[in-house]
């Protein structure tokens, strides 16, 4: 019997718990900050707040008690919003066993430190001898509603720890959820974080009434700047052409279930960001938080990211979406492949 703790009771955390709970050999505990989420799951076997209509297997128990959730866990899946990652792991540190495998499924960057989530986790859990527990990053094109429904889905687990890769691939895979392995943690995490920014831009195009040409150009050039930053940070270009890069980018930029794209649509229609966030009823669009960190990381690495810079200006400096798109189109001429 594998004991797995999922930390974060939002849509994606619940979707992962449903996948893991399908296996008879799993005992899954889901930690949710919200008491009403735990009550909904306990009484009606559904997370009505974040993932309505998707039954949660009986093998999954929900709690807002961290100690009870983590007790005896062999694998901990971290699915909290990026801005809460450090504080939650500070709370979790004394409650975790040293040999526990940690899987980060949060797609974002930490503001201030500019760290990826596995870096934040390793930083918090660092031992006195300087070592840290085995940590992996789970990412790829995966809307929670579709994963929970059992639609065929392919995703990637990235780690430098071969044993973690083998264990997660075995424990998470089932006939509708295919897990690939990758040793490029940097590329997988940056792909998952940066695609949300481009998805906001794709939504803005839709909100402005622009057509498929505009979105196709945006996705392609968005992937180019994501790849530049990933390589500058030590990632690999081929990772950005895979599930955690291009796959997740296409899904998030074009899918109606994308929260980041939905934020962009409303911005393009003239809504202000505070009103859009208020209307999301507690759900998180990670791209809003990641944009500032991505701009900082690009600056630190000397990488040009024009789409990211314009999204930052819209989200955090009040720039007009139409003006931002116009500026992207009227930049000085460039070579598509980076040559003269």
Produce the secondary structure layout.
Layout: E1 2-7, H1 11-21, E2 26-31, H2 35-44, E3 60-63, H3 66-70, E4 75-78, H4 85-92, E5 101-104, H5 117-125, E6 135-139, H6 144-149, E7 153-158, H7 162-172, E8 177-182, H8 185-207, H9 212-232, H10 237-240, H11 243-254, H12 259-268, H13 273-278, H14 286-301, H15 306-317, H16 321-329
Parallel strand pairs: 1-2, 1-4, 2-3, 4-5, 5-6, 7-8
Antiparallel strand pairs: 6-7
Helix pairs in contact: 4-5, 8-9, 8-11, 8-12, 8-14, 9-11, 14-15, 15-16
Description:
This protein has 340 residues and is of the alpha/beta class. It has 2 domains: 2-183, 3-Layer(aba) Sandwich (Rossmann fold), CATH 3.40.50.720; 186-329, N-(1-d-carboxylethyl)-l-norvaline Dehydrogenase, domain 2, CATH 1.10.1040. 51% of the residues lie in helices and 12% in strands. It contains 16 helices and 8 strands. The chain has an 8-stranded mixed sheet, with helices on both faces. Strand 1 (2-7), helix 1 and strand 2 (26-31) form a beta-alpha-beta unit. Helix 8 (185-207) runs parallel beside helix 12 and helix 8 crosses helix 14. The protein is globular.
């Amino acid at each position: 019997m594998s004991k797995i703790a999922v930390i974060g009771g939002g849509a994606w955390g619940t979707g992962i718990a449903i996948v893991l709970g399908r296996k008879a050999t799993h005992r899954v505990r889901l930690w949710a900050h919200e008491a009403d989420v735990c009550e909904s799951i306990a009484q009606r076997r559904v997370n009505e707040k974040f993932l309505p209509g998707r039954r949660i297997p009986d093998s999954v128990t929900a709690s807002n008690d961290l100690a009870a959730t983590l007790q005896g866990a062999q694998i901990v899946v971290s699915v909290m919003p990026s801005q809460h990652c450090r504080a939650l792991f500070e709370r979790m540190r004394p409650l975790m066993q040293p040999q526990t495998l940690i899987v980060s499924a949060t797609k974002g960057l930490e503001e201030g430190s500019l760290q990826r989530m596995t870096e934040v986790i390793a930083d918090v859990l660092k031992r006195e001898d300087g070592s840290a527990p085995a940590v992996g990053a789970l990412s790829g094109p995966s809307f929670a509603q579709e994963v929970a429904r059992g639609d065929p889905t392919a995703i990637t687990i990235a780690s430098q720890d071969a044993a973690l890769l083998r264990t997660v691939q075995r424990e998470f895979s089932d006939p509708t959820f295919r897990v690939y392995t990758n040793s490029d943690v940097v590329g997988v995490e940056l792909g998952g974080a940066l695609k949300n920014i481009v998805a906001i831009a794709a939504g803005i195009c839709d909100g402005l009434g622009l057509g498929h040409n505009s979105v196709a150009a945006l996705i392609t050039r968005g992937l180019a700047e994501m790849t530049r930053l990933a390589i500058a940070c030590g990632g690999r270009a081929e990772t950005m052409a895979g599930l955690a890069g291009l796959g997740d980018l296409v899904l998030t930029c074009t899918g109606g279930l994308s929260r980041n794209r939905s934020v962009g649509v409303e911005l393009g229609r003239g809504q202000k960001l505070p009103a859009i966030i208020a209307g999301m009823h507690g759900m998180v669009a990670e791209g809003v938080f990641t944009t500032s960190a991505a701009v900082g990381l690009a600056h630190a690495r000397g990488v040009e990211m024009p789409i990211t810079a314009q999204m930052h200006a819209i989200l955090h400096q009040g720039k007009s979406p139409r003006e931002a798109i116009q500026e992207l189109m009227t930049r000085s001429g460039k070579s598509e492949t980076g040559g003269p």
